[in-house]
Amino acid sequence: MTKSALITGITGQDGAYLAKLLLDKGYTVYGFVARRSSDSRWRLREMGVEADIVYLDGDMADACSVQRAVIQAKPDEIYNLAAQSFVAASWNQPVTTGIVDGLGVTHLLEAIRQFSPHTRFYQASTSEMFGLIQAEQQDENTPFYPRSPYGVAKLYGHWITVNYRESFNLHASSGILFNHESPLRGIEFVTRKVTDAAARIKQGKQQELALGNIDAKRDWGFAGDYVEAMWLMLQQDKPDDFVVATGVTTTVREMCRIAFDHVGLDYRDFVKIDPAFFRPAEVEVLLGNPAKAQRVLGWKPKTDLDTLIRMMMDADMKRVAKE
């Protein structure tokens, strides 16, 4: 019998990779999308799945449209990937971030509780909830200390998921995902900002790259690997929360070196530090411990940072050359 899944945030990086994964597994895939005047489905086209999605209009801030989508789709699984996910923007849009990343989760859980209690639910939590880290390596038991409106809103979404799971016996799991990137990543994120700039500088279309704290450390993985962990969580008999990470942390500086090396350039000749890009409350280090995901889900990352950045560089070099 064919399974069905509803994906919020399907037009984002993770949504596109997850849609492809589920379609390849024979799922009927519904995409919950907000109406936009600009083209928001380009990632789905890149993955070759745009025409295979059943689209449902709605908005995470509107409880009625969320309920209607759940009733129409009758999904076996819901993956909540919708978010205002750019940390820097959350300082300029704290209320919007709180509504979409926090209240929107409650809208989904309440719709499941009332209309589709058999549905299994995945909540996209984030390593930004750890913020001012309380342990050298963060796992499911590490205390949270978010340092941005994004991290705070996501923490609400995480804990309301736990509460609905325990209060109403819902199969609701959270993936505490550390940074994960791909050629489909938005240009505002530092990895794509770096690979796009390196491609432009190499082709003479840009002179330098302005960045903030390049000594910040992050645990970077490949989005295509991480969506498999999402799916595996909803195949378990028991819902739970899982850290999804590589277990390796790298500075932004080193990531720049890898990207510029790929096109025969020295990043030190082009990267300039601009204090305007520093966060009001910096998160200096994030390093995940994926041992539980490895033990329970049988999941391991397949793509190292060097391979990931080179993949992104190749894609950006081709894209910039066509402009």
Automatic annotation (TrEMBL):
Entry's EC annotation: 4.2.1.47
Catalysed reaction equations from the record: GDP-alpha-D-mannose = GDP-4-dehydro-alpha-D-rhamnose + H2O
Domain of life (superkingdom): Bacteria
NAD(P)-binding domain: residues covered: 6-312
Family: Belongs to the NAD(P)-dependent epimerase/dehydratase family. GDP-mannose 4,6-dehydratase subfamily.
Stated name of the protein: GDP-mannose 4,6-dehydratase
Function field: Catalyzes the conversion of GDP-D-mannose to GDP-4-dehydro-6-deoxy-D-mannose.
Catalytic EC class: lyase
Gene3D superfamilies hit by this protein: NAD(P)-binding Rossmann-like Domain, UDP-galactose 4-epimerase, domain 1
Cofactor: NADP(+)
Keyword terms of this UniProt record: Lyase, NADP
SUPFAM superfamilies referenced in this protein's UniProt entry, alphabetically: NAD(P)-binding Rossmann-fold domains
One matching Pfam family: GDP_Man_Dehyd
InterPro entries assigned: GDP_Man_deHydtase (IPR006368), NAD(P)-bd_dom (IPR016040), NAD(P)-bd_dom_sf (IPR036291)
Gene Ontology MF term list: GDP-mannose 4,6-dehydratase activity
